[in-house]
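User: Predict the structure for this protein chain, please.
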Amino acid sequence: MSKGGIPDVLFDQLKFLEQGADFTGIPPRVQSSSGKTYFVKYGSSVEQEQYKGEVESLRAMWEAAPGLSPRVLSSGVDSGNRPFFISEYKDLHRLGDATAKVLATRMATELHAKASEKGFGFHVPTYCGVTRLRNGWFETWEKCYSCMIGDLVDQLRNKGCHEELCDLSNEVRERVVPQLLGSLKIQPVLLHGDLWNGNVGVDGSQRPIIFDPSSFYGHNEADLAISRIFGGFPPAFYSTYHDLRPKSDPVSQYPHRCDLYELFHYLNHTLIFGVRLLQNESGLES
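Assistant: Here is the predicted structure, written as structure tokens:
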């Protein structure tokens, strides 16, 4: 059942959030008679884990940097095991130079300042796009990132395609990952996990907002990888960020680490879309 296009379970949650208010609209955008607007997401029973990962990611980011991401107001599953969550609704427009500097500052000083005491990884599975990341906890960043790459390779192999790509990626795991990540002295800090230009915007108050996360605790530099692939972030974003959070030692290996961290997203793109876009110094080519 639904009330004016709003499923009952969501209507009840909205009434709990604003007692006495009326609600109109069709998810994902629902308006209250008070003038507030809510983002309402309602999934299928097979998406429970995916919704849980997004909610936990958003809550962790809000705790680290309040207002940098939409605040989750309610979440759960209905009687048919369909997941839902309700959050703040944001009308967004494109990032500019000034707001990119604000985003870089908040990421460097707040989001990437939230460290984990449990190690590298995350406490629940998350989804980068439609790709499941099993997560868990790892003592070292080298082991965590190697596992992340390995999981993508395994999923590609299970599709029965891209054998050469899988072999090359495993070679990177065995040779490049230990060389570049094994000696790093870093803290596991909270990452957005899928920070491309489609998951970033600016609200009506000129505040940067990041959303649709796939969070985990890892090396802060890894969070910048996909932003370089698809563009949309001005140079001021990177310069401001590294002024506040300098590149990890050895700095001379920073460009190579960038390539290595981009590999995860290239592999994920291949897994999701079946298209190879790889061409970098590791020898992976399209």
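Residues 278-286 have pLDDT under 50 and may be disordered.
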